[in-house]
Known about the structure:
336 residues; alpha+beta; 6-stranded antiparallel β-sheet; 3-stranded antiparallel β-sheet; 11 helices; 11 strands
Amino acid sequence: xxxxxxxxxxxxxxxxxxxxxxxxxxxxxxxxxxxxxxxxxxxxxxxxxxxxxxxxxxxxxxxxxxxxxxxxxxxxxxxxxxxxxxxxxxxxxxxxxxxxxxxxxxxxxxxxxxxxxxxxxxxxxxxxxxxxxxxxxxxxxxxxxxxxxxxxxxxxxxxxxxxxxxxxxxxxxxxxxxxxxxxxxxxxxxxxxxxxxxxxxxxxxxxxxxxxxxxxxxxxxxxxxxxxxxxxxxxxxxxxxxxxxxxxxxxxxxxxxxxxxxxxxxxxxxxxxxxxxxxxxxxxxxxxxxxxxxxxxxxxxxxxxxxxxxxxxxxxxxxxxxxxxxxxxxxxxxxx
Length: 336
């Protein structure tokens, strides 16, 4: 993207979100795989501008509206997070569709949060405590609408592979993971059948070190695009694992800190059995299925995105296999 294109985006975003006069060019900010992130400076402050890689399918907008509602509720509840900025003419949640380069492009804006990525420095014990307390606050939000991403049975996976025209080596590699898929699906289904250990809430749904910034005063939770309906007991165990992960595995004491802080802040009891980790496996199954669809050409993606999805799908399936191998250990941690 050249200088004139960035200047055009900066001017259009500043006008749409009433951010004042632009003081300089957009600065690219390293982010995730899904969206472009920019920093914009105007005479009213600094702003985080997210250029969305969105779908025009109805489900995408429904998910965005649900996420925007959860984000606003969390901000009102006092969760430490960047302030979302609504566009001057809100129509679809918090985004603005702007004519860029001859087509409509969607943008979100938040107040810029100056902080250090937690992923760069590791997870101090105090941040594990903060994560537990933050989840307890989030789990006071009432359950709302949105996509809960149902889990596909292993027979669906087998059918996708059977009907696929793709690299034989890739298809064989995915087939090797089908027993793991079947085991993970069974854990999720068993947890769904155990109604007494599930509490429906609305939450961030991706509380992990990658989505935390360390500021001089507090950690801050960012990236609310995936917010929506969640199961409280499943999310807190998934987050406790994320904040206890080290370079060589997981730290049992750190895992316990997050859960202790969650309960101390009013969080719900978590059952000491493997169904407590259903949220982790639901996330891994959903992510792997989505990436497999992209790899096989079932979703409208570019050739480069389709090519990248092959490796990302296998990475996600490998993570799921690793999680299954540690499940009995993690369940013992819950019991202790």
